[in-house]
Amino acid sequence: MSIISKLNKAFESRVRLGIMSLLIVNDWLDYKYLKEKLELTDGNLASHINALEKLEYIVVKKAFIGKKTNTSYQITTLGKQAFNEHLKALEQIINS
Using CA atoms, how far apart are residues 22 and 75, in angstroms rounded to an integer? Predict the structure, then answer.
């Protein structure tokens, strides 16, 4: 097995890596926060969020704050496990 085979392809994108890094240390984060913090366009963020949601690494919650919709995201147990395994694989590469 090659040293890089344990890396998760879902996290090869720096955007997805950023999203997961923020979500793993926060309970819920809203769309606006992620967009501003990662300096992304709506389309770019939305496509990466959709990919992570399809993998069931994150869940989406839509709510209303006043008359405005608020979309927020949380990492799932599966997402935490996958991301932690990815980080461990990176550490193994760094330490080899």
Answer: 9
pTM: 0.91
Angle between helices 31-38 and 14-24 (to 10 degrees): 130
Whether the pLDDT of residue 96 is over 90: the answer is no
Domain 12-95 falls under CATH 3.40.140.10? no
Q: What's the pLDDT at 64?
A: 87
Q: Could you give the CA distance from residue 55 to residue 53 in angstroms, rounded to a whole number? A: 5
C-alpha triplet 54, 8, 23: angle, nearest 5°? 60
Q: Where are the domains of the chain?
A: 12-95
Sheet strand arrangement including 68-75:
29-30, 68-75, 58-65
